[in-house]
Amino acid sequence: MPDKPRIKVPKEAKKGEVIEIKTLLAHPMESGLRKDEAGALVPRKIINRFTCEFNGTLAFACDLEPAIAANPYLQFTVRVAQSGTFRFTWIDDDGTAITADESITVT
Amino acid sequence: MLLAPVALGLGVSASHVTAQIAAVPLALDGDASARPWRRYPEWPQRDSANFNTLATMASPPAPTEPRKLTRPITGDPALGAKLAADRTRGGSCLACHVMGPAGGADLPGNVGPDLSEIGNANNDDEMLYNFVYDARVYVSDTLMPPWGTHGIFSEEEIGHIVAFLKTLKAPAPFKTELDDPEKRPPPVEKRDNLDSMLNPAMWAVDDKAPALWTTTGPAGSACATCHQQPAQAFKTWAATMPRWEPRLAKMLGVEEFVTRHAKATTGHVWPIESQENIALAVYLRFLANGSTIAVDAESAPAKAAYARGEALAHRKVGQLNFACVDCHTPEGGAGKWIRGQWLAQLRGALDHFPTWRTSQQAIWDARKRFQWCQVAIWANELPPDAKEYGDLELYLIAQSNGLKLNVPGIRH
Hints:
The structure holds 2 protein chains of 2 kinds. By secondary structure, chain A is an all-beta fold. Chain A has strands at about 5-10, 10-15, 20-25, 45-55, 55-65, 75-80, 85-90, 95-105. In chain A, strands 2-8-7-4-5 form a 5-stranded mixed β-sheet, with no helix packed on it. Chain A has a 3-stranded antiparallel β-sheet with strand order 1-3-6, with no helix packed on it. Chain A starts with 5 loop residues before the first strand and ends with a strand. The relative contact order of chain A is 0.31. The model of chain A has no long low-confidence stretch (mean pLDDT about 95). By secondary structure, chain B is mostly helical. Helices cover about 30% and strands about 5% of the residues of chain B. In chain B, the strands form 3 sheets. Chain B has a 3-stranded mixed β-sheet with strand order 6-5-7. In chain B, strands 1-2 form a two-stranded antiparallel sheet. The model of chain B is unreliable at about 1-20 (pLDDT under 50). The interface of A and B includes residues 1, 6, 28 and 73 of A.
C-alpha cells in the first residue's frame, strides 16, 4: 500500500483570506549522486515538479532539485476568493504523476 | 469480546497473570521471523562468527601476560595517524580518543582519555604496544577493544600506531568548538514526534494499522472481529510488555505477540520485521502512549529472565568486544561521544520504540535496534524473535519503568 500524500488545508476560510497549505509526499528523492555498496551510481529518481491548482487554475508551482531531502515537505500560502477544490500534483522523474484533491468552503 | 491482555492490570498476582495469559490464543508452532535469518541486504555483510554473540560464546580468550617485544618499534607515524582515524576499522582510536592532529581532529570521541600529549609521558614501547594490542593485560575491565587479539589491527599496524602515539605532544588543533567532544552539546530532539507531517512513522497509526485492523484473514476474521474499540482496549497493554509466556518459555514482546496471536485468530501471516507487523507494533504502543511503563520483573519467571537479560547486557560481544553497559551506562560511555555519535543511557532507551529513523528513512523496532547495535560492534545479530533478545528487552525496558510510553519516536 503506497503512502498517501499528507495535505493540510483549512476546511473553511473567509473570502480573500490568505491560507496556509502544507503538503508532504513519501518519496526517496534519490539524488543520482549516491553510490551503492558496489560503487555504482544509484540512478536519480526525484519528484522534479509540484503544482497546486485551484478550480483548474495554477495557484502555486515549484521545481524540485536533487538536493531536496526525502519525503519533500512544502508549505506555502494562497489567497482564496471562492469555494472550490485544490488539486495537488507531484511529477516523478519516471513520468508518474501523483495527485490528490482537497476542497475548501469560502464564505 | 475482549481477550485477556486488556484485563491484565498491574498489581495482579503473578499466578493470576499466568493463568489469564494461558487463555490468549497464540500460534505456538514455528518461529516468528524468517529462518534461516538473513541480514538486511543494505547492512554490512561481514561474518563475525569467530566472536561472541548474545547467544553463543566464541571469542578468543584474553591473554594474561603482556607480549614481549623482541626489538624496538620501528613503525611509521604517518601510517599510524591514518590508522588511528580509519573509520573502516570499527571506528578505530578516534572513535573514543582525542588524538592531536589525527583525522584532522574532526569530531573525535571522548569515551577514553585525550591522548594528544601522550608522547610527553615517556612510556616504553612495550607498554604502548600492549595497550593497543590488548589492554586487558593491564586493566582487566577496560572498555578498549583488544585490537590485536581480535585481529582488527596486525602487529605491524599496531607498530605504526605506537610510533604515532610517541609523536603526540600538543593539544588537538580543533577547527571549531563542535569538534571538541568536551564542548560539543548533547543532541536535543525537539520535533513533535506525533505530528504526521514531521514523523512518517505516524502514517502507521493514521492509515496502515487501522486498515490492517479490519482486514479479514484466511481464518475469516480480522483484529476488529474481537477488538472493536482498540483505543479503549489497549490503553495500557503495550506498557506492560514484554511478558513471560510459559507456553513458549520465553519473554514475549509486542511484535512476536502480534505474529503469533494474529496467526492463531485471523490466520494472517505477519512475521516480525514485515511492514504489517511494524505498523501494528507502532499502533499498539501508540494506543498506550502516556501510560507509565510498568513491566513485570518480579514474578519468578520474569525475575529469572531479568537476571539473564542483565547478564547479557554485561556480556562482551563481537570483534570490538563491547557489552551494552560499556557504552550505555554512566560508568561506561553514556553521555559521551563515539566520534560524532552521542551515547544514550539505558533508562529511556526504549520508551519511544518503534521509532522513525531519519537516517534510515524507516521505522525500526527495538529488536532491529538490537540487531544494529551488534552489527555495529562487529558481532553477528540474532533473529528478532530470539529468546535472548526477549530477556534483554525486559531488562532494558525495566530500566525505563516509571517513564511514559511515547511512540513512535523520531530519531536520527
